[in-house]
Design brief:
alpha+beta; single chain; 5 helices
């Protein structure tokens, strides 16, 4: 009985400690949430960029189909699907990191921190401006003890 009271007390203390503290910019779960948010957005943008940079291939396929008397819609749709797959494989091989994390502002009453960091993409095919983006994010504990993250970047 005494052991269960001690365990219950430890659980209560750790829950209270987690709820009363402010998250930190370098906290692993904060970095993971930030990274996932930015990765998802960046991957989508890079896939779209790849698709539009290779859009001329659709025109080439259209002209080829016309010249050969083939079903133009079918050939163009097949080429679109091929481009979508290529754009997805283009971004899947990339690796992403958050580095140079800095605290901008700490609001202890709100249990909130504001941070800035560099989001690094390791890939030779990406231009330097995109490879090393500045991101700004906030992390805040919710009333039920979860972490809420908001991210902006340029």
């Amino acid at each position: 009985m005494k052991n269960s009271k001690i365990i219950l007390l430890l659980v209560f203390i750790s829950a209270f400690y987690a709820c009363s503290n402010t998250p930190s910019c370098n906290q692993e779960d904060v970095k993971e949430l930030v990274s996932n948010i930015v990765k998802k957005k960046v991957k989508k943008e890079l896939k779209n960029k790849y698709f539009w940079e290779h859009y001329y291939e659709l025109n080439d396929a259209r002209e080829f189909a016309k010249d050969k008397g083939l079903n133009v819609d079918k050939i163009v749709n097949e080429k679109k699907e091929e481009l979508k797959l290529k754009s997805e494989s283009f971004v899947e091989g990339m690796s992403f990191k958050i580095k140079n994390i800095r605290l901008l502002k700490l609001q202890e009453k709100l249990k909130k921190c504001s941070c800035v960091a560099n989001f690094i993409i390791n890939d030779e095919l990406i231009d330097e401006q995109v490879k090393n983006m500045n991101i700004i994010y906030t992390a805040q504990y919710t009333e039920d003890g979860n972490i809420y993250v908001e991210v902006t970047y340029n």
